[in-house]
Design brief:
The protein has about 70 residues and is mainly alpha-helical. It contains 3 helices and 2 strands.
């Protein structure tokens, strides 16, 4: 049984149907890569809460369950 991830929404009229939580999920994940120190990320997006980040990371890992990624050999 899949656990529902609350606070993340899809709206066909906003953000091209991307999953969002105040901001597009993709933008927050990109921000986590760009700003590994969360305080820097929060300076960029002051409305973003720690709980939002946790929900986004939970949503992202759950969505990977359905994706097959082709990785290059090291």
């Amino acid at each position: 049984m899949r656990k529902k991830v609350s606070r993340i929404t899809l709206n066909q009229k906003l953000m091209s149907s991307q999953p969002t939580i105040r901001l597009p999920v993709k933008r927050v994940v990109e921000g986590l890569v760009l700003y590994p120190d969360r305080s820097q990320l929060k300076l960029e997006y002051p409305d973003l809460k720690d709980e939002d980040i946790r929900k986004i990371l939970d949503f992202t890992t759950r969505s990977l369950d359905h994706e097959i990624a082709v990785l290059e050999a090291a």
